[in-house]
Design goal:
This protein has about 325 residues and is an all-beta fold. It contains 1 helix and 21 strands. The structure holds 2-acetamido-2-deoxy-beta-D-glucopyranose. The site of 2-acetamido-2-deoxy-beta-D-glucopyranose has 12 residues, from loops.
Length: about 325
């Protein structure tokens, strides 16, 4: 356990302690991890930004992780520049099929789209790319069509996505969760005070609430351009009894009005944690998984490490 000085400074009198990431062996370099366990044999599949969604497998969450290859080795069918450099995989298991949502984008450009590949085994070369799910952005929109995250609430699928501009959006999906239902996207989280962005949404239902996890701050390029302390990536959360809005933080501040409570920030040798997801593991319970910089390894994007911790929900909010 180490004490997060930035959190202590922000909340006088309240000591926040963060656990260190669990150990990882084998291929532990990862950005924006997506995690799924195969139902047939319990093998873990861990997906990552870069290439055409590279993935690794392991029999244990601790590793050793072994790199396998890419989800869509030829690149996405989506006709945008960046279709061979896919981002931010989001994994789901729906009625016998594994879904891998991904984003097509180019860093610094608003031309972006969300795609879907499916497989019944997750093996190499077993994935079928279906191209765009109907969520796209171009110059002038209030969002970027990146960082997909599917949630099913009361029988309806919704896609959370976005970053920069007006931060995090949501759109209703069809009954199979494969395409948008055609209605307009709406904002669910926005930080008016930020010079960076909220992105990488991951929504998870626990008890009576939907928890909206997101990454806030400067994500990348720390080796050449490190932000002021506290402005680097961190993992935040808001919650609501509905999946579609009214998210608030621990202090009751609306997530659309710059609210958000920290779940994990830089501490000790951990720097800029983000790109997170939540997984309901049969052995460890609900875990938060993420990437982070280990300051003893290096600050480059290519140095980002895989981390995870069991979530403690005891006060109705996730903490690790
Ligand atoms: C909003 O932005 C400010 C300034 O960058 C930052 O300090 C704060 O933590 C952000 N809040 C959330 C909820 O991300």
């Amino acid at each position: 356990m180490r004490y997060a000085l930035t959190a202590l400074a922000a909340l006088p009198g309240l000591a926040l302690a963060y656990s260190n990431p669990e150990s990882c062996s084998g291929t532990c370099v990862v950005s924006d991890p997506g995690l799924m366990r195969r139902v047939s044999d319990g093998k873990y599949f861990r997906f990552s930004t870069g290439g055409e969604i590279t993935f690794a497998t392991s029999d244990s969450l601790f590793g050793p992780w072994t790199g396998v290859g890419s989800v869509v080795p030829g690149g996405s069918r989506i006709d945008l520049s960046g279709n061979t450099d896919l981002w931010a995989p989001d994994l789901h298991y729906i009625e016998g099929t594994y879904y891998c949502f991904y984003a097509v984008s180019t860093f610094g450009s608003q031309s972006s789209a969300i795609g879907l590949a499916t497989s019944t085994t997750m093996e190499l070369n077993s994935w079928t790319d279906h191209g765009s799910i109907g969520v796209a952005s171009s110059s002038g929109k209030l969002y970027n069509a990146i960082d997909p995250n599917l949630i099913k609430a009361d029988g309806t699928f919704y896609m959370n996505f976005g970053s920069f501009y007006d931060d995090i959006y949501q759109v209703k999906m069809n009954s199979a969760g494969t395409k948008t239902a055609g209605s307009a996207a709406y904002n669910i989280a926005y930080n008016a005070t930020s010079t960076h962005s909220e992105e990488g949404a991951y929504m998870y239902q626990y008890g009576n609430y939907y928890y909206l996890f997101f990454s806030s701050g400067a994500c990348c390029g720390y080796d050449t351009d490190r932000p002021a302390a506290g402005e680097e990536y961190k993992i935040m959360v808001c919650r609501s009894t509905e999946a579609t809005g009214n998210f608030v933080d621990k202090n009751g501040v609306a997530c659309r009005e710059s609210g958000g409570s920290p779940v994990l920030e830089s501490h000790g040798t951990v720097y800029g944690p983000g790109g997170q997801g939540v997984y309901d593991d049969p052995k460890y319970g609900t875990i938060l998984y993420y990437h982070y910089i280990n300051t003893e390894i290096g600050y480059a994007d290519g140095d980002k490490q895989f981390g995870w911790n069991v979530i403690d929900w005891s006060d109705g909010w996730p903490s690790i």
